[in-house]
Design goal:
Belongs to the UPF0337 (CsbD) family. This is CsbD-like domain-containing protein. It holds the Pfam family CsbD. The protein has one domain. Helix content is about 90%, strand content about 0%. It contains two helices and no strands. Helix 1 packs antiparallel against helix 2.
């Protein structure tokens, strides 16, 4: 698992947090939900990274 992948997945999580916060501030529930979904997807990818690292 490369550091590039880990950074990309962390970036996706941060992007999701920003979208969620923007959705809350503007009252845009769709944007807020999209941000939460992005965060969940990024966390799944990060968990996969951890599993791959454990087997190295």
């Amino acid at each position: 698992m490369g550091i590039d992948d880990k950074l990309e997945h962390k970036g996706e999580e941060v992007k999701g947090k920003v979208e969620e916060a923007a959705g809350k501030v503007t009252g845009d529930r769709d944007l807020e939900a999209e941000g939460k979904g992005d965060q969940a997807a990024a966390k799944l990818k990060q968990a996969g990274d951890d599993v791959k690292d454990a087997f190295r």
